[in-house]
Amino acid sequence: MKLPDMWIRIIVGIIFIPTIILLVWLGEASLFVFVVLIVVTGLWEYYRLAGAKNLYPNKVIGMIAGGLLCLDAWLGMGSRAVLILTSLIVITASLEIFRGHSHTAILNTTTTVFGVLYVGWLSCHLIYIRMIPSAFDSLSEQDGVGMLLLAFVIPWFCDTSAYFTGRAIGRHKLIPHISAGKTIEGSVGGVIGAIVGLIA
After folding, report:
1. How far apart are CA 89 and CA 153, in angstroms?
2. pLDDT tens per residue across span 58-69
């Protein structure tokens, strides 16, 4: 049975947000493990959806590359990212010769690589943000931690405030052809909630 949106938001607020805060606060190693799990899970889902469109991305190679980007972000500050991505393109394109999907070989390669860029490369920037103090000595020790916490907590404040404001007083549709449930009142409530979260 599908949970109502309100309960999903409550569960996220009670479990997910405190867990994120703890992982960020504990240090780079714990955040690295968390981000790798996000990347691997995200790539698996992305490649599964691509498979539903009759594409054949190389799941294993893509997930390995995504994990390596995260490892490089943690240990090498991105110094080997170009090498990892170049190797991904070469290896994926070469393997297509032997996979027997010649009619979709180019699409398979681009789907594999795009997944790594979209899910892996973007996600590993969470690690970069956490490590800002070690990259820029002029910043205080807590700057990277604070920036990353804002990246998680403020959207939650915004989304939750927008939801409850929209449910309570929402009357005017915002963009009905894109999202029928969104209202102007809810959007204003979301902005106010984000500001309150930032100040708090």
Report:
1. 35
2. 999 999 999 999
